[in-house]
Design brief:
single chain; 854 residues; Phosphorylase Kinase, domain 1; 4 domains; six-stranded antiparallel β-sheet; 12 helices; globular
């Protein structure tokens, strides 16, 4: 029964009717308390006695009132008057999207303006675990200023509500405005799962929005049929006419977004509505109504399920532009580099699927955890596979072996199908593996041993090396592997295991440290991998090795760190190129922002003076040259001073000397003067060096080193020409400077730290130091406290009172932008704990499909 003007509902006086829907009648009313006009929605008399309908109505009020967003109508109040349940909400003056569509399709600019706002509102609701379930043009109002607002959460479902089973329902679907049914929603905009009466989640709203976007572009409903049942059947089974045919002026990126939203399988829609909103916003911001759609509409009309629009206005051109740039700078002008990733972050491993066109890769975009994605070699988009994992291998039968990450748990290899489905964990303690060419067996690396088949040790890494990756030859008779020596100052080798005999031989050795990547070329029979030159500052490149003779050649050396991932049967190469830099940062504890004091491209902080005014920098990248460069830089940002070639280790307490490893003779230590004077060569030939710390007297220092195959050990060195003497047992490392009185050093092993008397005596554990401490940074000026480091990327700094064992958190440091950053490399504090310097590496990746490499 309609309410007449003047009717009172609580403090609200009805002025006039505004409209009606299946979940209620809406009136314009006046709030007598605040003298403002509102919209009041009441349940119609025909359903007011339906307890389930009333309950759903109340749920709308609770759901909508919990949301606060400019693109969602604001709920002010709710109540019950004389048996009438009502909700008071914001009165939106404008027209509905249905009214806007009465004249046909919308211009692209207006379509994107409305669509992006609706997606933003939905994203807010979905982040609060609220699903609308009845999104349609009638439920979107647009003001005269162009502000879009979502109305009527009358069918909203709290997806995490207590007592809601979320199970499927079974009842005939009805349109809003007819009799109530258990399957709810408006037929033309339902998702397939909603039409089937199944449980729905936020991706159902994405389908509804996709239907609205389609209608805004084409000027007609997506699944228009003669009757409701026929429309439902079409939603469940049929594909809509392509927008490339029905609305040829539609920009291709928008077509991709619509097609992804309209995917029948919810798994193929967006993993997050926030990502959908971001794609629409980028496209809105990148296109104008005057944009010529011809270039954007030139892509193949076939359906691409998963767009990642890194920059909507230029997404289709980015691959060609980047590829051309790298091709111009690369070693082979014939090679064509076609980019297949466009977002900001790190790419992990990548593999071609058996069809040679599908690519599966892992990536950490915008600082998020690693996730699996699927794309096509001719696409600019990627579909998330909703799994925190890295790809290890794809078999010829379409099985994937993936490395699944479970926080601090041991690595786990799992098997899953390219077609989708949950992974099945198969090998614990392993995260590298490869399928045999027939796809029937798996070889894995576990505990630095090669198992083939799984559970049977087939071979082992060479003593003192780490086995990092393996790949079967195309005929399955050989397994290539990369071995890296365990020190960064040592190198890498390529080895091959013969499958029939089990024999292992070294094919190529003497490369720089930390080689990566591995693939057999299906045409030449060569093994391609990514090592470094032995010269300091060299970066990973792509080399080919003939496995029988060991003859090697450089295949590609583009700008950046280059890692071969896979080679397709036709010879196309899947390659990752990283833009890799290290930054030196400086700040005060509790300050709002840190200062970037990087000098060249790879600035690692190696020490900070006690007064906090001078940083010692190691420039080991391209800018530092083949021998590396050593710099001092003032904290005031003045130009850095180059001290010489090599790798610095520590700055003396008086700031006059730097312990360094020379670039020409890396098996020695030298003292470089920071001012006038000549370098001093110390008697330490034949060693390899890690970190070093000065004694307070400035006449002696401790350093970590090793000789031959012996374990690492700490040595005490006088700056005179005397030879160093061992300090402490083998296998220990250093933890920060020596105590201010020069009597105690801190040595650590396997996560445990000990006090070591400098003049001899038994070591003792440090009281109050738990296993959560990652490093001991230094002593305070009094010698009564230690500064500790806990955590990785955003590191917490703690102070430990060594007498009482009490710990106090001082603050946390780390980059404000974590994209492409895994952890902090070095951290240094002043004795008062107020000033710090640290360094971190940022790696930003692009995945390419390269043709023409030979």
């Amino acid at each position: 029964m309609a309410l007449s003007a003047g009717t009172k509902l609580g403090p609200y006086e009805v002025l006039a009717p505004l409209g009606a829907g299946g979940m209620g009648e809406v009136y314009r009313a006046r709030d007598t308390r605040l003298s403002r006009e509102v919209a009041v929605k009441v349940l119609p008399a025909a359903v007011a006695s339906d307890a389930s309908r009333v309950k759903r109505f109340e749920k709308e009020a609770r759901a909508a009132s919990s949301l606060n967003h400019p693109n969602i109508v604001t709920v002010y109040d709710m109540g019950e008057t004389g048996g009438v349940s009502w909700i008071a909400m914001e009165l939106v003056r404008g027209v509905t999207l249905r009214q806007m569509l009465a004249e046909g399709a919308l211009p692209v600019k207006k379509l994107l303006a409305v669509g992006a706002q609706v997606a933003e509102g939905l994203a807010k609701a979905h982040e609060a675990s609220i699903v609308h379930r009845d999104l349609k043009p009638e439920n979107v109002m647009v003001t005269k200023d162009g502000l879009a607002k979502i109305l009527d959460f009358g069918l909203a479902k709290l997806t995490q509500s207590e007592g809601d089973s979320g199970g499927p329902t079974q009842a005939p679907t009805v349109s809003v405005g007819t009799e109530p049914g258990i399957v709810v929603g408006t037929v033309a905009y339902m998702s397939p799962e909603q039409a089937l009466g199944k449980a729905v989640d936020f991706r159902s709203d994405q389908f509804s929005l996709g239907s609205m976007l389609y209608e805004m572009a084409a000027g007609r409903k997506t699944f228009a049929r003669a009757s409701g049942p026929e429309t439902m059947a079409a939603i469940i089974r049929d594909e809509p006419e392509s927008l490339s045919a029905g609305a040829p002026g539609t920009p291709v990126p928008l077509r991709w977004i619509v097609e992804r939203c309209l995917a029948k399988d919810p798994e193929e829609r967006y993993a997050s509505t926030r990502d959908l909103a971001r794609d629409l916003s980028r496209l809105r911001d990148g296109l104008s109504e005057e944009s010529a759609p011809g270039a954007l509409a030139a892509a193949a009309p076939g359906r691409v399920l998963s767009p990642w629009l890194a920059s909507a206005a230029v997404a289709l051109l980015a691959g060609a532009a980047i590829g051309a740039l790298v091709a111009r700078k690369g070693p082979d002008p014939v090679a064509d580099y076609h980019a297949v990733t466009f977002r900001r972050g790190q790419v992990g491993r990548a593999r071609f699927a058996p069809d040679g066109q599908t690519i599966v890769f892992s990536a950490q975009w915008e600082g998020r955890p690693a996730e699996l994605f699927s794309t096509r070699a001719d696409s600019t988009e990627a579909r998330p596979l909703l799994l925190n994992a890295d790809v290890a291998s794809i078999s010829s039968t379409g099985k994937m072996a993936v490395s699944v990450f479970h926080d601090a748990a041991p690595p786990m290899l799992a098997e899953m199908s390219l077609a989708g489905g949950a992974p099945r964990e198969i090998v614990e303690g392993a995260f590298r593996g490869d399928w045999t060419p027939d796809g029937q067996k798996l070889a894995v690396i576990r505990s630095n041993k090669l198992e083939f088949p799984v559970g049977k040790v087939f071979g082992a890494a060479t003593e003192g090396t780490n086995l990092v990756t393996i790949r079967f030859s195309p005929d399955g008779r050989q397994i290539a592997a990369v071995e890296n020596l365990r020190s960064e100052s040592e190198g890498a080798s390529l080895v091959v295991f013969d499958v029939p005999s089990g024999k292992k031989r070294t094919v190529s050795t003497g490369w720089g440290f930390a080689a990566q990547g591995l693939a057999w070329h299906p045409k030449t029979g060569e093994v391609w991998f990514s090592p470094r030159d032995v010269a300091p500052g060299s970066v990973l490149m792509v080399c080919a090795v003939e496995p029988s003779s060991g003859k090697s050649r450089v295949v590609a050396r583009p700008p950046g760190v280059t890692v071969v991932q896979d080679i397709a049967p036709d010879g196309r190469v899947l390659m990752k190129v990283d833009d890799w830099h290290e930054s030196a940062m400086y700040g005060q504890m509790g300050s709002a922002a840190d200062t970037n004091l990087s000098w060249l491209d790879f600035s690692r902080v190696m020490d900070l003076s006690d007064d906090g005014k001078t940083l010692l920098l190691d420039e080991s990248g391209r800018g530092g040259g083949a021998k590396g460069s050593i710099y001092l830089r003032k904290a005031d940002g003045s130009p850095a001073t180059r001290l010489g070639d090599g790798r610095p280790l520590a700055l003396s307490p008086d700031g006059k000397w730097v312990i360094a490893v020379p670039g020409t003779t890396p098996d020695r230590l030298i003292l470089l003067p920071t001012g006038a004077g000549e370098p001093r060569v110390l008697r330490t030939e034949g060693m390899r060096y890690g970190v070093a710390v000065w004694m307070p007297d400035g006449r002696r220092f401790l350093f970590v080193s090793r000789t031959g195959d012996k374990p690492w050990r700490v040595y005490l060195q006088d700056i005179s020409q005397e030879a160093p003497r061992p300090f402490g047992p083998e296998g220990f490392g250093l933890g920060g400077p020596v105590s201010p009185d020069g009597k105690v050093a801190i040595l650590g092993k396997e996560g445990k730290w000990f006090f070591f008397p400098v003049e001899g005596g038994d070591p003792r554990p440090i009281p109050g130091l738990g296993e959560d401490v990652d490093d001991v940074l230094r002593w305070d000026r009094t010698g009564r406290s230690l500064y500790l480091r806990k955590g990785g990327l955003h590191t917490e700094i703690w102070r430990l009172d060594v007498g009482s064992g009490r710990q106090e958190k001082l603050g946390a440091i780390g980059p404000s932008d974590a994209t492409g950053v895994d952890a902090l490399d070095t951290i240094f504090l002043t004795p008062d704990g107020k000033t710090y310097a640290y360094s971190f590496q940022r790696r930003l990746s692009t995945l390419f499909v390269v043709t023409g490499l030979k």
